[in-house]
Amino acid sequence: MASSIAQPAMAQTFVHRIPDWCVHAALVVFGALFSIGVSGYAGGQENNLYHLPVLARLYDEPQFANDMFIQSLRFYASGFWMLLAGHVPERDVYTVLFLCQIVSRIVLFSGLVVWARLVGVADIRAQFVFVILASLSSILRGYSKAGDGGLLIDYFTQSELANGTTLLSLAWMVRRRMAAAFAMNGITFFINAFIAVWTAVPLAFILWFQWREGKWRIRPLFAHAAIGLAVFTLLAIPVLRNILANPYNISIPPFDYITFLEEFFPYHFLIWTIPSQETWSFLVILCCGAAGAMALSASGALLAVALSGAATVWIIGVVLPYLTHARLLLNLHLLRSGTTVHLLTAMAIAGLATRWLFSRNETDRHVWAPALILCSCTTDRMLPLIILLLLMRRARPDLAFRRRYFATIVLLLPVVFFITIHTVHTYAAERQIIQQRDEWQDLAMWARTQTPAQAIFLLPPGTSRGTRTGFTTDMEQEQLFQGAVVFNYFSHRQAWILRADGSAVMWAPAYYHTWHDRLQDVTHLRNLSERSYYAAQHGIAYVVDRCASTDLDHAVARFGRLCVFRTFKGTET
Predict the structure, then answer these.
(1) Residue 302 and residue 323: Cα distance in Å, rounded?
(2) For the whole model, what pTM was predicted?
């Protein structure tokens, strides 16, 4: 008996000897890895189309000298990719992107845990539960509503890294560490300039609230602001210099920018292109955040202020396209700022559920907390019930009935089933994504070794959700496009046109007519015969299309579902 009592005491003493920073570092790393396990990971997707050519510095290679899309990436407005350009060996690219994803999640969960402490989740056990609930939250799953900003997505981009720095900046402003908050927003600017612009608004809201509460005096305020803004400026200069050095930003041919956005990817910019159901879902999430902040009582006051600032940016994004067609203003992607609303709401709900789980009130522990977890960690269709649940709990904080433990099991079992099924589905989807990507990678490596450096390829161009009629491809071509993001990087060969190349118009407007005309032409080609004829007419050597049985004899190479066909131009080369 003596030994059994001594062992827990010794273990407890050992735990107390571990520095707090080590415990919190372990917690954050656990949250990062656990969340990646839930969301899955597959490098080489979607926006990596813009990152991979920068890593390889394709704009320095002679075969891309006349490719305005690739050349424009030299002035990509992110210091993060500027640092990595030319320093990532091709064989290690997926490993590096995965490590970046881990770092991104570590930064994100650092911000979430800091906010958790601000709303009263202080105990390490409670923070452990909070991290799990945040990882499982349907509010953070995938992309933001009515704006399509990345949250816990299955590949790495610098924008998701900036989600974490945004949370840290806001949290430090709440703590009145203004210099640190401004400096952290400078890091956000270095990573992704327009996210730093979004963040400035909730920072200003928090500062104004604190000023009205009498928590700042003039001299300390200006002293902290001067230090923070000095660091911000130093971090912003490299990005601003790269933007100002862009020669493609000078010549602006006549075209309507709103029309371009409708043709390219309107969900980041134009509220009228977004399905009404998605807009309502965003408003539900905003209401959940506001209700959660109120339920957190005094600790939620500044959370509500930050949430109001973030919502204000999104509302400006709704209105702005009705007031102006100015490219520089619309390029701020203001609807994407809804990611900050998602982040703060998810933190509020996870924090509230955690506090209830560790409450002395049995009804909170066994009924309200499990019910809140059920609503927030399964399908997002359950989110409207959160508002009803918070109202019910406010009216009846104590429920007089027996078998509360049974209620806990009944409420949490569906969560376990849902997460299990969702994870199985996620990993099945990831396997398919990787298989499609690897087919394109094999094709690209063949192109690199078996075709001339100047050879141009006609690929399926891909389609964006919500684009206007005339700029969409058929379902077959859309499926063939899946995985094509890696083609340029591994082949070092030009692709004639991709829909996603249109992002270059934002910082190289002279590219618009080239992109528009090529995309419109290619999306109207209905079969291999038409594509081959078009390719030959435009000096394109190779066409990538589906491997139909009638065309296999004419293919020069096959990679799974993808076949490569040589045009008359290809025969000449």
Answers:
(1) 31
(2) 0.93
